[in-house]
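Weekly sync, protein design subgroup
Attendees: M.S., D.O., the rotation student, P.L. (late)

Item 1: inverse folding check
M.S. brought a backbone from last month's batch and wanted to see whether the design step gives back something sensible before we order anything. D.O. pointed out we never logged the input encoding, so this time it goes straight into the notes. Structure tokens as presented (103 positions):
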């Protein structure tokens, strides 16, 4: 874990940078402090515990979904989604910088 970079969330809708985990029937709401590798450091839970959760953007409520449009409800699936999104953003930034350099 020492060599792994922190995984950063950027909402594809509003650009927000915080994720919260929402339990069914709003029994639990908690945020993610940071993710490194496959380790998630959670913020304190606000209300109780709930075994079924999904993830959303704190700022706009965008629900994080897999490629089939299903709510992501598993930590490892969330991390895989975040890594994929970071890869997409990096690729877009590289293309954008190349376009700017070519003017």
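Designed sequence read out in the meeting:
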């Amino acid at each position: 874990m020492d060599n792994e970079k922190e995984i950063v969330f950027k909402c594809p809708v509003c650009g927000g940078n915080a994720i919260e985990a929402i339990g069914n029937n709003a029994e639990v709401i908690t945020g993610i402090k940071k993710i490194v590798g496959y380790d998630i450091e959670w913020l304190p839970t606000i209300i109780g515990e709930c075994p079924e959760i999904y993830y959303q953007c704190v700022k706009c409520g965008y629900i994080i979904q897999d490629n089939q449009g299903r709510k992501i409800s598993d930590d490892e699936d969330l991390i895989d989604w975040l890594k994929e999104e970071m890869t997409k953003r990096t690729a877009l930034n590289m293309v954008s910088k190349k376009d700017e350099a070519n003017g």
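Discussion: The first helix runs from residue 75 to 102. The radius of gyration is 15 Å.
Action: P.L. to compare against the previous round before Friday.
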